[in-house]
Amino acid sequence: MSSAERRPQQAQLPRGGRAAHNVASVGAMKLGCIADDFTGATDLANNLVRAGMRVVQAMGVPRQSLDAEADAVVVALKSRTLPVNEAVAQSLAALKWLQAQGAQQIYFKYCSTFDSTAQGNIGPVTEALMQALGSDFTIATPAFPDNQRTVFKGHLFVGDVLLNESGMQNHPLTPMTDANLVRVLQGQCRRQVGLIDYKVVAQGEAAIRTRIDQLRAQGVGLAIVDAISNDDLLRLGPALKNMLLVTAGSGVAISLPANFGITPSSMASALPEAEGLQAVVSGSCSLATNRQVLAFIKAGLPARSVDPLQVAAGVDVVAQMLDWAKPLLGQGPVLIYSSADSNAVKAVQAQLGVEEAGALLERTLAAIARGLVDVGVRQLVLAGGETSGACVQALNITQMKIGPQIDPGVPWCHAQTDAAPQGGLHLTLKSGNFGTDDFFIKAFARLV
Question: Is the pLDDT of residue 64 over 90?
Answer without folding.
Answer: no
